[in-house]
Known about the structure:
By secondary structure, the chain is α/β, with parallel strands linked by helices. It has a single domain, classed as NAD(P)-binding Rossmann-like Domain (Rossmann fold, 3-Layer(aba) Sandwich), CATH 3.40.50.720. 39% of the residues lie in helices and 17% in strands. It is built from seven helices and seven strands, in the order E-H-E-E-H-E-H-E-H-H-E-H-H-E. It has a seven-stranded parallel sheet, with helices on both faces. Helix 3 links the parallel strand 4 (79-82) and strand 5. It starts with 6 loop residues before the first strand and ends with a strand.
Amino acid sequence: MDFTKRHVVVTGGTGGLGTAVVGTLLAAGAFCHVPVFRAEELEKFPLAKHANLELAEGVDLTYPGAVDSFYDDLPGLWASIHLAGGFAMAPIESTGTGDFHAMMSPNALTCYLCCRAAVEKFREIKKDARGGRIVNVAARLALEPRSGSGMVAYTAAKAAVAAITQALGEEVAGDGILVNAVAPSILDTPQNRTAMPKADYTSWPKVEEVAATIVFLASPANRSTRSAVVPVYGKA
Length: 236
């Protein structure tokens, strides 16, 4: 999986999974572009000063103009990986319209806008030799929505990500653009361990393992997998 001289966007790149994905890409020779909305996202980001990393601060991925401007300024694009999102759970009687939008916007809307901008960028720079890779992040609930009791809005948002992936994958396959998603179960992160102190952490997928799947799907080594939502459940 050689990414030498290939430009890759990673949204949500400063988070736990994002750090693992960006680190794996940098080790493979990629030049990574990471949009950041809030400066505090960089406080614990260990890769901020890497020579092959460019941070774009103040980019609101829920705003079409900001997304389009960010992609327009890229010097090139091989792959676009969309990890940005949010999570909340509550019974439906406690989930108002604002709460629903608060799940759809960071998950489904950011995915949609970045996918659209990435496809336009691929077509702009590839011309007759089109191609590219897009990888989104859904969730296990997107594939098993009956498990979404108590988190209907989040489940709907991640199901939308899965649907975007599959529909777009078919739409752009003829251009050589391969669109896929991963669907993790609960990731083994410090935050999730704190939130669920009695859980069996050994069954959870590790961020490095999920990152490896994402990077493969985004790599030149992936020559045929498209329109897939790949389960990454670990032993859970």
